[in-house]
Amino acid sequence: MSIKVKLHPILQKLAGGQEVVEVTGHTTGECLENLESRFPVIKQMIRDNRGQLRRYCEILVNSESTYPKELTTPVKDGDQIDIVIFVTGG
Hints:
globular, Ubiquitin-like (UB roll), alpha+beta
C-alpha cells in the first residue's frame, strides 16, 4: 500500500529537499511513523516528548482535516497526507 505524504516546506529541508515522500501504513499515525523512521529529525519537529502532534501541526488526508483523530485516521492506497505547519511571527 502506497500513501503519499506532502511535506510542508520547513520539513522538506529535513527530508533532503523532497516535497512528497511515499510511505506505507493503514492509519495516519503508521504513515507518520514510517516517515519518521526514514527522517528521524522530522519527528522532533512534529511531535512532543509524549509522541503527540505539536499544536502547530495539522494533518490532512486528501485535503480534509483529520482533527481530532490526527494519528488514528484510516488511509488507503493512493491517499495523500499533507503535513501542515502553522508558522507565526511578529
